[in-house]
Amino acid sequence: MQLKTKAIALATALLAAASVAPASAVVTAGDNADVFLSLCSLIRLAERSVSGGPETASELAAYTEMQQLNSSLSPATWRKNFAKKGPDNKRPDYNAGTGVVDEIRKRRWPHWKDAEDKLEQADAVNNKLKSAGLMTPTDGDKERLRIAIQPLLEEADSIVNKLENPTPDLEIIKPDSIKKILTDAAFGSGITVPDKLTDNVLAGKAPASANRDDICGKTTASATADSAAAFMYCICAAEGSDNAGNLKICHSQQAATGIRKTTMTDSASWVKALIKQCPEGSKEELQPESLEAAVNQLQTKLKPGASGLYYGKFAANGCTGESNSGACVFYKDSAAGDIGKIKEPAWITQMKLAAKQLRANANAIRNRQVLTARLEELRRQALKAQAQLILAAKTNQQQGHSKASGADTKTIESIKKQCEALEKATDCKTKTECKWEGSEASEGKHCKLKEKKWKEKPKQEQKTRRRRNARGKERKNANLRIANGRAKLEKIPLL
Question: Which of 49, 188, 325, 328 is most buried (most C-beta within 10 Å)?
Fold first, then answer.
């Protein structure tokens, strides 16, 4: 609401400036209000903050937690590598000694040190193990889980390497660098805010004895104005000797100026006061779309003249601020190639560069967010790995039980068929699993399976045997996994 009210007040002021213009004047009050507003937009955008994305520490938070779990699971012999030493009581940096430098281990070393730092607090290791589902773990439990999470850590480490050594699509241009491009273009080289503007900076590349013709241009020479603030001076400041410099070219509240066309003295203080008449800017972070739109809007204000192109109001010979001459930025187009400089002065090119870098940063931030989201998913998987190991063990046990039960059923059916195939009492009685249900002298299908014998066979013994077999198989598999894991870990650095 406050910004809207100020915008309405500004529009009223601009209309008021136009309404008091003398009919005979060539340059009249309010003539350059539209260019003034375009310059105001660029100046306010240059004042806004520039995002650099999240801090690296927050991006790596999930990976840091994974390394803490990994260290908590690692044997004491490994963790001794990071024990604090010496009079400074610091953890050692990577040192290959007389051997070959292991680049992978060297790159991971700072993360291992950081994990040990975070595990120094009392119960930190136990709490980390509990977070992964290990309440009272044995060394074997820890070893199995550590091996299980190694593939997750390998992938996480690959992601971290990309974040720490980014390719162009992941690289964040420093916000301060973009901000400097913006403020240099808006106010002049080295000026970060309008209040620090000086006459010399406003003159820019013009000679020390610069006058208004040098800065703003004329039909015989192009302007050298190299900032939005210098443009604002050229299109808004009236000549002090013309109606006491009281021509309101851009805003009804602009101060009368004592500035003379032959000097730049006091030009900066006058421009600083005029910038305060610009509408207030947003406090939100600067977006590339806003900057691009503002630059394009200003460039639409470029007008053709008899011997060149100009911004503002051109009347006769130049941009002196006199009503019968012009309040403008004039570019002479006599030489081939001048048209490019006219359409895009260096400071506007810099504004476009800043917009390009802002867009590149926005894309890089999105790409990095995809990677950090994957790190978070890997962290969750690492914390759930113990539950997966338990589930896998139960599944293997159940599968072993099912196979044993199936084998018992097949055995009973086979013996039953063997019994029923015997048709003589003497043959049937030789089988302890069979019984003869006919007379001694009779023959035929009288040999049957002793079902009661099988039903009464100790079930607990069968269950015990099946459990023992399943445990033995699981122990064999676990030992094999550990052996394979150890063999692998001997070839690569511990994560």
Answer: 328
3-class SS of residue 448: strand
∠ Cα 150 155 160 (to 5°): 115
Asked if residues 239 and 259 have their Cβ atoms less than 8 Å apart, the reply is yes
Calculate the alpha carbon distances from 392 to 286, 386, 395 in Å.
Answer: 52, 10, 5
**Are 297 and 41 within 8 A, CB to CB?**
yes
pLDDT tens-digit map of 76-88: 999 999 999 999 9
Using alpha carbons only, give the angle 114, 86, 65 rounded to the nearest 5 degrees: 10
Q: Do the Cβ atoms of 157 and 106 come closer than 8 Å? A: no
Query: Number of C-alpha atoms within 13 angstroms, CB side, residue 132?
Result: 31
For the chain, the straight-line distance linking the first and the last C-alpha, in angstroms and rounded, comes to 56
Count of CB atoms situated within 10 Å of the CB of 179: 19
Residue 305 has pLDDT above 50, yes or no: yes
Average the pLDDT over 111-125 and give the result.
Answer: 94
Mean pLDDT of all residues in 323-352: 80
pTM for the model: 0.72
- Residue 398, classified by CB atoms within 10 Å of its CB into exposed (0-12), middle (13-18) or buried (19+), is exposed
Helix/strand/coil (H/E/C) assignment for every residue in 357-391: HHHHHHHHHHHHHHHHHHHHHHHHHHHHHHHHHHH
Which residue is it, tokens 């305060």?
276
Q: Which two tokens stand for residue 9?
A: 């007040």
Mean pLDDT on 139-162 = 95
The model's pLDDT over 338-383, given as tens digits with 9 standing for 90+, comes to 566 666 899 999 999 999 999 999 999 999 999 999 999 999 999 9
329 neighbors 299 (Cβ within 8 angstroms)? no
Q: What angle do CA 280, 282, 283 make, to 5 degrees?
A: 115
Q: For the residues of 15-58, what is the DSSP string, one character each?
A: HHHHHT--TT-SS-TTTTHHHHHHHHHHHHHHHS-----S-HHH
**Domain limits of the chain?**
2-50+174-344
Rg (CA), the chain: 42
